[in-house]
Amino acid sequence: MKRILSGVQPTNKLTLGNYLGAIRNWVDLQHKAESIFCIVDLHAITIYQDPKELHDATLGVAAAYLAAGIDPVKSLIFVQSQVPYHTELSWMLSCMTPMGWLNRMTQFKDKAGKDKEKACLGLYAYPVLMAADILAYKATHVPVGEDQKQHLEMARDLAGTFNHLYGEDFFPLPEPLIQGPAPRVMSLRDGTSKMSKSDPSDFSRIHLMDSDDEIAQKIRKAKTDPEPLPDSIKGLEDRPEAKNLVTIYSALKGISLEQAVVETQGQQFSTFKPLLTDVLIDHLKPIRSEMERYLKDPAYLMTILNQGREKASAICGPVTQDVKKKIGFLGISPR
Prior knowledge:
Helix content: 40-55%
Strand order of the largest sheet: 1-2-3
CATH architecture of the largest domain: 3-Layer(aba) Sandwich
Shape: globular
Structural class: mainly alpha
Strand content: 5-15%
CATH superfamily of the largest domain: HUPs
């Protein structure tokens, strides 16, 4: 049986991009494979996080998982920092990671920018911790976006390196999980940039907890062009903002982009934007309502996360202990 693993960082508020690009897909996956969904707070602190905001955002991600339909009975939900085997395995893997591999990581170059000398070690070593997250559970498949494919390749390389060093196929080589044309949601202010929680403009994104009025205002102010919507996908190719809004419409309605183009062809944005707003509100309102309900009961969320921590530790604890034995570390003798 496949074992999948994925996670979301608890930084700022979750966006429509997080939901359509990841969380919604996991709801279907939990019925097809053993599913492990982590809240990756250790990855979040590669940049400074306000302690209270990180605490609250972690509970917010847990609430979003549940509100979107992830079942804690079918799936394992836990917080990364509460399972110390992740960091323990990360150190052991880092001692097998050539510097050249890390130097090739494009995401570090993108995030560190021109001032990479001031970037923290955690950002540089991020891919090794991600590999540990995956390999600690012997995950066979990982849903990944374009920006994470290179990191998954490193996880595969590290699994292969460990297996070669110790002469055993101990770790499976995790495969990227391709689910078909998952929508890549772009910024509402720039159709060539991915919708991001870190964008300075709040009008660049839809948050899952946005009110109906906030959603309407953000769609009303979304960047567009003066032309009516085209009658073919080809007509969207050089119109990134138009393509983004039609893509969001198709994803929320559960129809193909081709069907969405047929439904909206010839419409001016003055007509299409209110239509898209209604679709967004209808889809997100019940999720927001459920998130609000869960966030009013943090004790319940902590119960779910504590149960998840215990189950996660029961899986990755023995894996980590086996790794230590193979490396040659002394075991702990019973008294």
